[in-house]
Amino acid sequence: MTINYNEVGGEMYQLMTELFPICRSITGNGVRETLNIIKKHIPVTVHEVPSGTQVFDWTVPKEWNITEAYVKNSKGKKIIDFMENNLHVLNYSVPVKKKISLGELKEHLFTLPEYPDWIPYRTSYYKEIWGFCISHNQFIDLKEDEYEVFIDSSLENGCLTYGEYYIKGEKKEEVLISAHVCHPSLCNDNLSGIVLAVFLAKHLSQKSLKYSYRFLFIPGTIGSITWLCLNESNISKIKHGLVAACLGDSGKFTYKKSRQGNAEIDRAVINVLRNSGNDYKIIDFIPFGYDERQYCSPGFNLAVGCLMKTPHGYYQEYHTSADNLVLVRPEYLADSFSIALSVFDILENNKKYINLNPKCEPQLGKRGLYQMMGGQKDKKIKELALLWVLNLSDGNNTLLYISDQSGIEFALIKDVANILLKHDLLKECPE
Ligand code: ZN
Question: How many angstroms does the Cα of residue 187 sit away from the middle of ligand 1?
């Protein structure tokens, strides 16, 4: 199957555009609406977990919803309006309706003096307060007046909503792909991870797979804690995993290793990035970041890393109104799609073989193997790949190891192994 990456990037971007206006949070209708749109692409199962449910050391919070919010001046003019940008409301604000002075209003305003044109994204999930977020320039211009503040929100017992999509492969062992779904109108952090997961799921569902794949669309932190708690008996099936976040900006790829540090997923991602021809960065596991914090907590210690382009906190637009549809571009989403598929290709095909002619090199010429190697240009590299695979296939080494040792990209190592298999020079080892 040939993939038109431009087309996929465009489709991912289109889905991002559709999801962008929705006011998401860790609970509430924004997540449901998001999952309903995702359902147009993949048949995701929606789970609802009641508020108050105990999940390890945490409690599923009350559900937050919002319909309208504004600040009006004494002339009745809306000077801050949630309808214009949902970042204007402190996410999880409790309802309020009153008239206040400028002084009191300022106690509830959040701005970003370093970037005076941008609206910051702020939340208050566990402290019941209300507030508005505005650009610092607007803040400076506010006049003494009597202001009417109105937030029509609700914070009541309800549910935490998350989505799950499972693709059955040959094996029960699973690859987990996790994306958070709790950010409102923010593209790189968060929509890029969501659209990547959706299109990976869509693509993989059309293939025959060795592993089963599980996609999670969950609110950050509380969502992964909830999912791990409710699915604890099945956790041992997860063999590999990736948290997908910040995957649509122009920066270089960054991979944060799992807590295990040298898991197959870690080696697979590093191998793909090393062979990508582009600059990249590998970072060791640290106990802050996205949901890998929970998957890699010591009681689970799953082989789950985090694939990003520019990490959270390292780009100036992070958690501001400038993390928008301009910052993220279709071609970068397409790059992320391509990298992730190459990683899965390794996981799916990372086998071990035994050389059936191990005493000295087999004579390749008489088997027509030199002629099979195509044009002059890639003949040399294919020949090298053949020699590497033959030499290291002693039953102990995986194709990923051979690719790492030889510096030859995995796809070619895999192709060559298949050729040698056809010529009875290799035998696959049982797993
Ligand atoms: Zn974030």
Answer: 10
Cβ–Cβ < 8 Å for 307, 193: no
Entry pTM: 0.97
Tens of pLDDT, residue by residue over 310-349, are 999 899 999 999 999 999 999 999 999 999 999 999 999 9
C-alpha–C-alpha distance, residues 422 and 114, integer Å: 62
CA 323 – ligand 1 centroid, Å: 10
- C-alpha of residue 183 to centroid of ligand 1, in Å: 7
Compute, in angstroms, the gap from residue 260 CA to the centroid of ligand 1.
24
Using only the alpha carbons of the chain, give its radius of gyration: 25
Residues of the domain holding 310: 5-61+159-349
- Are 65 and 153 contacting, i.e. CB atoms less than 8 angstroms apart? yes
CA distance 52 to 60: 5
What amino acid occupies position 5? Y
Ligand 1 center from residue 190 Cα (angstroms)? 7
| CA 40 to ligand 1 center in whole angstroms | 25
Count of domains observed in the chain: 3
On whether both 291 and 265 belong to a single domain, the answer is yes
